[in-house]
């Protein structure tokens, strides 16, 4: 009985010591623990709100973009251009797509195949906007060069294409074709022919079959000079 009583006493003392340590620890760090838990809850709620907000913004931009294209299809070109310009000011992927369509409509308005000066400025802005997806920037550069191939000096245009060619560029075949056109225009027939011959080795696809055909024609023409 005495031994059991002593064991119970020691156990009770150990529990008291444990409880005292917990109380001291909580007194020292309790506020920090509570603050940390509150911060986790706030951060989690903020992330959830931000994701929901971003989703709502994307849905809204998608609707505005579709509405603008609908105006263009109905022949309300001025209204479509205005709507696309408003969407452009919001930033993001839909803004870049809106800019591409706005440039196309501005060109269509002047009833020529070459882009209008305002369209060229839009392409230049897209190509320099680092917040825009690289693939869209490269496409804008290609449009920019194609729009000025008949008026601008070839070498600066070729340099733009060289920069755009670095890294992953889904438009690289069209990029190379424009490089060949510009090289020919600058008088460097050897470089133009070399690029066209490289293009002939491009894997034939529905997208690039016309490019290979043009490259073949130009290789023959340049080879006979």
Q: Which features would summarize this protein structure in a list?
A:
80% helix, mainly alpha, 9 helices, 225 residues, disordered N terminus
Question: Sheet bearing the most strands, described?
Answer: none
Radius of gyration: 33 Å
Say how many strands there are.
0
What average pLDDT do the residues reach? 78
Helix content: over 70%
Termini separation comes to 118 Å
Number of helical segments with 4 or more residues = 9
Beta fraction: under 5%
Task: Flag low-confidence runs.
Answer: 2-6
Q: Can you walk me through this structure?
A:
The chain has 225 residues and is mostly helical. The protein has a domain at 166-225. The chain is built from nine helices and no strands. The chain has helices at residues 2-73, 77-88, 93-109, 117-128, 134-148, 154-165, 172-186, 189-199, 209-223. α1 runs antiparallel to α2 (77-88), α2 (77-88) runs antiparallel to α3 and α4 (117-128) packs antiparallel against α5.
